[in-house]
Write a structure and sequence with these properties.
Strand content: 15-25%
Number of strands: 6
GO molecular function: deaminase activity
Number of helices: 3
Helix content: 25-40%
InterPro entries: RutC-like_sf, YjgF/YER057c/UK114
Radius of gyration: 29 Å
GO cellular component, one term: cytosol
Family: Belongs to the RutC family.
């Protein structure tokens, strides 16, 4: 075998070895998302609280996912289904937060474990905001979850308030 043939064979061998090394490095650095996880996945479970307004559509009052609770938008409807349309803002806020308290309790959580709250207020003005905030502060106490307040032109059935939340379990 000529020295050129030996050199060519050596180069091809080195190139093949380098290619195999690159493939091994590349394949071992692939993201874990392509591999089956050995960690247990959180299980989704609906929460139904008898002390809260029943879900009125294709949704659950809340969903547990691992160590978190996702509470649906709650409207001022009593646990026996009475809609508080036309009632004062104070009565509507109390009904919404009573529903939330019942859902938190049924799931094993509490107001001091609320992580985030989103509030929708129709007919937004200083009086309605002050009334909402006073009752809300009594509900959460010294705990101050993250919160967004969204003024909206109208809500379903002419309600003045809707609240959704995320809480820890």
């Amino acid at each position: 075998m000529s020295s050129n043939a030996v050199k060519t064979a050596a180069l091809w061998g080195a190139a093949a070895g380098a290619l195999v090394s690159l493939l091994v490095v590349h394949l071992t650095k692939q993201p874990q998302r392509n591999r089956p996880s050995l960690e247990p996945r959180p299980s989704l479970a609906p929460v139904t609280a008898s002390g809260a307004a029943p879900a009125g559509g294709h949704y659950s009052q809340a969903m547990k996912n691992g160590s978190e609770l996702f509470i649906s938008g709650l409207l001022p409807i009593t646990s026996d289904g009475v809609k508080l349309t036309g009632s004062p803002i104070e009565d509507q806020v109390k009904a919404v937060l009573n529903n939330m308290g019942a859902i938190l309790k049924a799931s094993g959580s509490s107001p001091n474990k609320i992580i985030s709250v989103r509030v929708y207020l129709a007919d937004f003005n200083h009086e309605n905001w002050a009334a909402f905030n006073k009752i809300y502060n009594e509900f959460v106490g010294d705990h101050k979850p993250a919160r967004a307040v969204v003024p909206v032109p109208t809500l379903h059935h002419g309600f003045l308030v809707e609240v959704e939340a995320i809480a820890a379990l």
